[in-house]
Write a structure and sequence with these properties.
By secondary structure, the protein is mainly α. Helices cover 69% and strands 0% of the residues.
Length: 124
């Protein structure tokens, strides 16, 4: 005899527990469950009746709506992409190194003075 797989053991154990609990139901609940089961079994062969709003929506309604939504997303992406263009920085006539290379080396001699001036300006 072949041993049962763990899933089969679990299923058998669960079925035994549920059957034991079903014996403790009151008669009205048991009758209600029995009627629901019979209704479900009887409806297996019948086609389902769609009564929700989704049953009234057809493919001819969804396709134009989907196309319109897709077009709106494309327009939104293009507008946002075009609006975030790279802003050009203003042209600067010369960089700091070019100014220093021309002969403004006396600024470098007084760096301690400029540090003191900046500290005094922020302190008071």
């Amino acid at each position: 005899m072949k041993p049962e797989p763990p899933e089969q053991e679990f299923t058998d154990h669960l079925k035994a527990l549920l059957d034991a609990d079903a014996g403790h139901l009151d008669t009205s609940t048991a009758a209600h469950l029995q009627a629901a089961r019979q209704s479900a079994v009887a409806s297996i062969g019948r086609p389902r009746r769609n009564s929700g709003w989704l049953a009234r929506v057809s493919l001819s309604t969804l396709l134009p709506a989907g196309g319109l939504a897709s077009a709106a997303v494309v327009v939104l992406v293009l507008v946002m992409w075009h609006g975030n263009g790279v802003q050009q920085l203003p042209d600067v006539q010369g960089s700091d190194w070019e100014i220093l290379a021309v002969g403004e080396l006396e600024l470098l001699e007084d760096l301690d003075f400029y540090d003191w001036l900046a500290d005094a300006d922020t302190a008071g």
